[in-house]
Every structure is written in C-alpha cells, then in structure tokens.
Amino acid sequence: MRSTPALSASASTAIAHGHGQQSSAPKLRRRRSHRSRPTAPPADAPTVPRRGGVALIASLLGFTVITIDVSAVNIALPAIGKSLGGGMTGLQWVVDAYTLMFAALMISAGALADRAGARRAYAWGVALFTLASLGCALAPGIGVLVGARVAQGGAAAVVMPASLALIRQAYEDARARARAIALWTVGGSVAMAAGPVLGGLLTDSAGWRAVFLLNLPVGAVILGLLVRVPRSARRPAAVDGGGQLTAVLALAGLAFAVIEGGHLGWTSGPVLAAAALAVASGCAFRVVEARHRQPMVPLGMLMDRRVAVPLAVGFAVNAAFYGGIFLLGLYYQQLRGMSGIAAGLMFVPMSAVVTATNLVSPRLAERIGRRPVIVAGQLIFTGAMLAMLPMAAHTPVWLVLVLLLPLSVGGALVVPALTALLMDAVPGERAGTASGLLNSFRQTGGALAVALFGSLLSGHGGGFSLPGMRIGLLTVAALLLATVALSRLLLPRG
Question: Is the four-CA dihedral 318, 81, 393, 262 of positive or negative sign?
Fold first, then answer.
C-alpha cells in the first residue's frame, strides 16, 4: 500500500503554515546610475534557494531509498535465512528492528530537524542510513544484521520529516511547493512498486547483500547534492527525551513478547519480562507526558475521538497490509518455491491498483463523505483477509492475483480519507504532532503484525505453516471489524 504520506512531525506543520512569502519590490527611481549595484539582502531575510530542483531531487532520493529498503528486504528474507540462519524469529527481527525504531522515533524526529536545521538533520540521517546499510551488507550473522537494521530505522525516522522540511525551505511559493510534494509522493509510490522486483532481481543475481549495498551510491549522491543546497535555519524546539525513551522501551518490549512468544513459549521468563517492561514503560510514558511542559504526545489529543479512532484505524490497516506483504513474500518463495524475481513480480499488479485507488479515494470522499469511504475500505480489507484463507501450495497463480485485489484496494481507499479527517480534527499548530502520531501508529501496527504472522507461520522443521497463516488472517480480520465498529459509532458523519 502506498498512500499519500501523512506530513511528518514539524515538517508538516511548516508546510501547513508556509504560505508563499512575497517580497515587496523597491520603488524605482526615474534615473538610476549605471554604476549602482544591487544591495545584498539583510542577514535575517528568508533565504529562497535558486536551486530548488536540487533540494527536491535530494529529498526524493532519500524518501525513495528508505521506501525501497522496506519492500526489497521482504523479498530477500528467505535468502537471508539460508545465509545467516536465525529461523523465522531472526527474519521477524530483520523486519521489525527497522520498523519499530522508525515508528518510535517518528514523533520526535521533526523536533531534531527544527533544532539542527533541515539540511543538517537530513544529511545526518542519510549518512547514518548509508553507514547502517553497509553494516547490513557486511553482517556476519543475524544478530549484527538486526543491530544494523535498528540503526537504519532510526536514520529513516530522521530522513522522512527532514526531507519534507527541505522541500518546504526550497519552495516558498505555495503552488510550486504543492507540485514538489506531489512529485515526492509519486516517488514513494514508484519506489514501493519497484522494491519487490528490485529486491528479487538483486537477490537472485548478486545475493541478498546487494539489496543493502545499493543504498551506498545513492547515499553518496544525496550527500553530494546537499552541498549545493543552502543552509537551513535553526529553530528552537523542545526534545522530550523521557517520553522518547519510554516509548522505545514500550514498543521494544511488546515486539519482543510477540515475536519470542511463538518461539520460547508465551509463559517463558523472557517473554513475561518483556511484557512487563512494555506495560511499565507504557505507564511511565503516560506519567512523563503528563508532566512535561511540551510533551511530544499531548495526552488531551488522544482523548479526542476524532483523533483516537483514526489512530486505531491506521494501526489496523497497516497491520493488515504489512502483515499480508510479509506473509506473501514467504508464501511465494517458501511454499510455492518461486524465485526472488518471480515473487517480486507478483507484487506489481498490487502496486498498480494501489496507485490508481490513491487517486480515486479523495474524490470519492468528497462525493459521499469520509466516514463511508473509511468504513468501506476497512470492510474491503476484511474481505481480503478472508479471501486469502483458501490459498495453498497449488492454488493457481491467476487466482492468487485475483484474491489479492481487495488487499490492494482496501488500504489505498482508507488512508487518504483518514489522513484528511485527522488533519481537520486538530488545530494547525498540532498538525505535525498528529501526523507523526498517525505514522507512528501505522508503523507499529505493521511491526506487530509481522511479529504475529512470523510466530504463527513457522511450522515443523521451519516450514511454512498454512494453519498458522489462516489463524493470523482471521486475527487481523477480527481487528479490522473492531475498528469498523469504532468508525461507525464514533467518527463524524460529515
């Protein structure tokens, strides 16, 4: 699913409030000396870069590479498992180590972009992502790979909002900025579509390490482009260290409990300890946020049903989609014996349908209202989970592609309307926080779904478990039906 990305953290706030600034032209004298020279602008005047296209290309490349990395790695998982071992649990951590750090740091990453300046924060994020990619490619074992993926996820959380802030800085004119953001969004859609194919091609031809090595030249190009981008202004922004730390611990504990529960047993000591850590950290997060002057998550916002319900829906929708993508990547290769490139090509029709539905969703919401679109999308997604239940090793390929159509449509229908509804529900100065929350909840839903499916998919001898697949699909379908009920009861009708 590749929907129009919600504007993340403080970058979205800047875009929401950044109306084009027009400088008043000085009055021309009737006679002007031919020796007169243009005076330099004052030091505090807003900088309008002459090379806005360079900033856009740099931003687009960064967003593209972190998007491709997600979908390409899913296709490379079976090859990683054969090379490094670690079983299904190790493969889950390869995916979730990235996603959880991305989700946990997304909310406050925008504050870093404000404090350091968009260009500097973006350069830091890209440099760290590139170095972490090298660490992934050189990993001698599954533990080192997971550690490098943690660094990648943290870097991606900085790249996302900083890339938008860089575009905001480069385009003061509102129309030009809107076109630039549209190109940025399309780049993400193309990257999501190309990721599985590229991942399969690289894995089959050069090995799974090439999936990560590809990020190195792209990172070098981005850093080279940033040299030509003017420096960004720094702005005071509070960093909620206590809230950030407790959020990371809560998500990590929860993910460990779900992933290792299927392997070590749900009543084992480490699993119970991780669950206790998640609960304790969650309670500590609430206390810290209630006492902080400028909390990264204002608790009052979460009490508003117009905010809480979209967050719950975003969680469920991403759980269904990314859990399904994780499942399908293993289904194609482990159960059906497809090559990496063949498995990647199976995702191309899905990506095309997602892109088309993204374009239809806003227009449909204008005609019939956002709530009906959100409810309908979730019901379609529920149908997708149920439609996948009969899939087995010898299900015809054409039938598999048909069964996956609802998976393509459901989330792409929901997310644009959901994002617009959430942005309308909060005041303008909270747009960045709300957007960061939505992205964080969506990423967390995807991460926990991968943890759940991974725990259920591992059969005897490490094979693919069809009964486990079906239990996971039914669980996610039940979650979607619960958020359908919440949407029907609590979302405004208009």
Answer: negative
Taking the C-alpha atoms of residue 491 and residue 494, their distance in angstroms, rounded to an integer, is: 9
- Looking at residue 331, the DSSP 8-state letter turns out to be I
**Candidate from 369-373, 412-416, 487-491 with smallest mean pLDDT:** 412-416
Q: Tell me the mean pLDDT in the region 252-280.
A: 89
| DSSP structural state of residue 304 | S
Please answer whether residues 439 and 426 qualify as being in contact, where contact means their C-beta atoms are separated by less than 8 angstroms: no
- Name the DSSP letter for residue 333: I
Q: Residue 282 in contact with residue 306, Cβ under 8 Å?
A: no
Kindly report, residue by residue over 375-434, the tens digit of the pLDDT: 999 999 999 999 999 999 999 999 888 888 888 888 888 888 888 888 788 776 666 677
Mean pLDDT (the chain, rounded): 81
The CA distance from 169 to 177, in Å, is 9
Angle between the N-to-C axes of helices 348-368 and 174-206, in degrees from 0 to 180, rounded to the nearest 10:
150
User: Among candidates 321, 409, 410, 374, which has minimal Cα distance to 487?
Assistant: 374
Q: Token pair for residue 474?
A: 């039914």
Phi, psi dihedrals of residue 227, rounded to the nearest 5°? -60, -30
- Report CA 135 to chain centroid distance, whole Å: 22
Cα–Cα nearest to 292, from 351, 254, 348, 241: 241
* Residue whose pair of structure tokens reads 């780049």 in the numeric block: 187
- Contact between 259 and 92 under an 8 Å Cβ cutoff? The reply is yes
CA separation for the pair 2, 194 (Å, rounded) = 12
Mean pLDDT of 204-212: 93
Tokens found for residue 479: 């979650």
* Residue 474 exposure: Cα atoms within 13 Å on the Cβ side: 9
Q: What's at 309, amino acid-wise?
A: V
In angstroms, rounded to a whole number, what is the distance separating the alpha carbons of residues 396 and 377?
A: 26
Question: What pLDDT was estimated at residue 382?
Answer: 94
**CA within 13 Å, CB half, 179:** 8
Q: Which residue(s) pair with 405 in the sheet?
A: none
Taking Cα atoms as reference points, which of 487, 472, 473 lies closest to residue 377?
Answer: 487
**Tokens coding 70:** 């997600």
Sign of CA dihedral 370, 426, 164, 449: negative
- Count Cβ neighbours within 10 Å for each residue of 195-227 and write b for 16 or more, e otherwise: bbbbbbbbbbeeebbbbbbbbeebbeebeebbe
492 torsion bin: left (phi>0), alpha (psi -120 to 50), beta (else): beta
Report CA-CA distances (Å) from 171 to 56, 176, 227, 233. 9, 6, 18, 14
Of 398, 386, 411, nearest to 469 by C-alpha is 386
CA torsion through residues 261, 264, 265, 270, sign: negative
Residue 464's φ and ψ, nearest 5 degrees, are -80, 125
Q: Is the pLDDT of residue 63 over 90?
A: no
